[in-house]
């Protein structure tokens, strides 16, 4: 299979419904946001009108009060002006409260920062992601092994259904794991050139480069004791050199059709330790 090839697909009817639901919820959130924006604008206009009306009624009341003090206005005229002023003042307070409520309902006026819209966008992204999971594509070019699927077969998440062995590329080259005896590790460095042959093709020589050197190996009782391992006093006093893993990246091109590399193949290699 090639990179991006569709290997198989899952029943995605529920994921499509979830995606449509998420899209509708986002549309509703945008509609509510627009309506709340209009409500805020209307409340601001009403507040401005209430402020103007209150200023007018206050001016009328102040003028009537002045006339009343000079005897040019009756007490009834003064009461009428006062009641109109108090009513305008109350309407102003109501208009301010309405604006505050509209602003709270709107939330952040920036649609990119609005919590309701952002929540709907996140739900939409999750629905799109879940739908994408129902289409299984090859993550790399390679060969399928142990493939035994039938239409309608039920599968579980995190279950291995078959293998995909990479055919190798510049971005995903083959790797060789080699084991070096510890007395020779001091001579091994990342970047040193490597020549190797496969037991499958003993007459073909390939090239690689040291790309990693292991810094530790498993020690008995290390994890259980969470301390330095103790040495048993009853042993035969023979110390066997341990082997540490190193990683080698294959750099030479090869014809995968005529000489395919196979996972688990035996390799004989030579590291040029003259390069530091």
What does this structure look like?
This protein has helices at 13-70, 75-106, 115-132, 222-225, and strands spanning 6-9, 135-137, 142-145, 163-166, 175-181, 193-198, 206-213, 243-250, 267-271. The mean pLDDT is 88. A five-stranded antiparallel sheet has the order 5-8-7-6-9, with no helix packed on it. Strands 1-2 form a two-stranded antiparallel sheet. A two-stranded antiparallel sheet has the order 3-4. It is elongated. The protein has 276 residues and is an alpha+beta fold. 41% of the residues lie in helices and 18% in strands. The longest helix has 58 residues, at 13-70.
Structure keywords:
single chain; 276 residues; five-stranded antiparallel β-sheet; two-stranded antiparallel ribbon; 18% strand; elongated
Tell me briefly what this model is.
The protein is 41% helix and 18% strand. By secondary structure, the protein is of the alpha+beta class.
């Amino acid at each position: 299979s090639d990179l991006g090839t569709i290997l198989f697909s899952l029943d995605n009817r529920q994921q499509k419904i979830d995606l449509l639901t998420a899209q509708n919820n986002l549309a509703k959130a945008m509609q509510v946001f627009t309506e709340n924006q209009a409500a805020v604008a209307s409340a601001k206009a009403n507040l401005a009108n209430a402020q103007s009306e209150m200023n007018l009624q206050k001016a009328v009341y102040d003028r009537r009060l002045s006339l009343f003090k000079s005897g040019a206005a009756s007490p009834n005229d003064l009461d009428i002006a006062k009641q109109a002023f108090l009513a305008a003042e109350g309407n102003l307070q109501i208009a301010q409260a309405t604006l505050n409520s509209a602003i709270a309902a709107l939330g952040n006026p920036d649609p990119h920062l609005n919590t309701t819209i952002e929540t709907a966008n996140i739900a939409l992204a999750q629905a799109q992601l879940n739908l994408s999971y129902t289409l299984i594509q090859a993550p790399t070019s390679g060969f399928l092994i142990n493939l035994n699927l039938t239409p309608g077969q039920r599968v579980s998440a995190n279950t291995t259904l078959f293998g995909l062995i990479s055919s190798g590329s510049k971005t995903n080259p083959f790797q060789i794991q080699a084991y070096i005896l510890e007395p020779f590790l001091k001579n091994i460095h990342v970047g040193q050139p490597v020549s190797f042959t496969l037991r499958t093709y003993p007459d073909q020589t390939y090239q690689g480069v040291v790309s990693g050197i292991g810094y530790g190996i498993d020690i008995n009782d290390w994890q259980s004791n969470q301390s330095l391992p103790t040495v048993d006093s009853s042993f035969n006093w023979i110390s066997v050199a341990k082997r540490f893993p190193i990683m080698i990246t294959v750099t030479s091109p090869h014809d995968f059709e005529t000489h395919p590399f196979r996972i688990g193949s035996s390799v004989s290699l030579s590291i040029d330790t003259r390069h530091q």
